[in-house]
Amino acid sequence: MEKTEPSFGFYERFFNEGLYLIKGKGKPYVSAPNAGHAVSETFVPYPDENNSHFEEITSGTLLMFRYPGTDEMPAGDKAFLVQILKAVGLGFQAVSRINTPGLGSGTDWEAIAARSSSDFVIAFGVDKAFLPHGIEEGQIYNINGKRVLAAASLPELIANSLRKKLLWQGLKEIYGI
Q: Of 51, 60, 111, 126, which is most buried by a Cβ count within 10 Å?
């Protein structure tokens, strides 16, 4: 039995609608009298939920926090952070920030390092999964072209002067102050 292509007339009677030619999709039917209308598909990128947190990371410094259940940093913590940043010559609006509870479960340090163009990363009380392996509070790691400083959470820093000193030593070292 010989396989033949059906005519456009069959489709027009069957579907009772106009036919359209889609560019690049198989063998086009060009014999129909009204097949002059071409339809093309456009690619619409959908945001990757694991990537959306990294879209705004454009500054040289990335700050990471851990505030579960909220996108907002408490006012007292923010005021303290503004003082810290001012001491190293940075402004709050000039740094990129990530609240780590909002990151996907598959996100780890390697994913953060790959998606961030920041040269300096300061992690305030984040889970170890989001840090280079083996880094401890007060330590600085030079890894993947980034200098990473692990610090206590901002509330812990506010309450403990020894931890503040440890943070300050690390900040002086990574920023060359």
A: 126
pLDDT in tens, 100-146: 888 877 788 888 888 888 889 999 988 888 888 888 888 888 887 88
CATH of 52-175, one of 3.30.300.30, 2.40.160.10, 3.40.470.10, 3.40.50.1260: 3.40.470.10
Q: Look at residue 155 in the predicted model and tell me its pLDDT.
A: 92
Cβ distance 43 to 77 under 8 Å? no
Average predicted confidence (pLDDT) for the chain: 75
Domain ranges in the chain are 8-39, 52-175
For residues 151 and 134, what is the distance between their CA atoms, to the nearest angstrom? Answer: 14
Query: Backbone dihedral region of 125: left (phi > 0), alpha (psi from -120 to 50 degrees) or beta?
Result: left
18 Ramachandran zone, left/alpha/beta (phi>0; psi -120 to 50): beta
